[in-house]
Amino acid sequence: AQSVAQPEDQVNVAEGNPLTVKCTYSVSGNPYLFWYVQYPNRGLQFLLKYITGDNLVKGSYGFEAEFNKSQTSFHLKKPSALVSDSALYFCAVRLASGGSYIPTFGRGTSLIVHP
Amino acid sequence: DTGVSQDPRHKITKRGQNVTFRCDPISEHNRLYWYRQTLGQGPEFLTYFQNEAQLEKSRLLSDRFSAERPKGSFSTLEIQRTEQGDSAMYLCASSLATTGAETQYFGPGTRLLVL
Known about the structure:
The structure holds two protein chains of two kinds.
Chain A: E1 3-5, E2 10-14, E3 19-21, E4 24-26, E5 31-38, E6 44-50, E7 56-58, E8 64-68, E9 73-78, E10 87-95, E11 104-105, E12 109-114
Parallel strand pairs in A: 2-12
Antiparallel strand pairs in A: 1-4, 3-9, 5-6, 5-10, 7-8, 8-9, 10-11, 10-12
Chain B: E1 5-7, E2 10-13, E3 19-24, E4 31-37, E5 44-50, E6 53-57, E7 65-68, E8 75-79, E9 88-95, E10 105-106, E11 110-114
Parallel strand pairs in B: 2-11
Antiparallel strand pairs in B: 1-3, 3-8, 4-5, 4-9, 5-6, 7-8, 9-10, 9-11
């Protein structure tokens, strides 16, 4: 079985400060990892993914995520937060091989960026 | 660039009625997924198609739910004899099957309210 934990329901950060949204995962092999963002009453928008190689993955809108195999984590980061980054963020995981194509999503973390 | 579209965006129905939702994927994508999302949760997988074949169904998908993708293009999700517990956002996603970690692209969702 595969699972994702997003330990924080909500993250608050001031505009201009760095932000981190945490994600830990559990799979029975090598993972593919994804981050999506969801704005109110909208579907999910793809931000970035980790497949293999460099542990630091760069994505859309200045976001990046760091894969840490020993800690089974894939935290989302941004050096300088914008008010417009306020949204719901979802981490997802699936097995790289030998398993289903279907990713498992976390419960989401609400990011609030204060002006 | 045409993304994934869903119709309708909102549906209010009375308990016991049947409803049908439509999803139009990105045109070259051969995989299509249906998810359900309730408040405070991430998307939960319901079913997926590769071309016109329904390859996987979740145990969440009761007998009242049926999905089709008759020509490998658009898909419909029907819920028969709706119950109040069916109230949720129904998300469709599509992807292009590759040898790596394919990315799912989501539609805006159909929000269902069962009275």
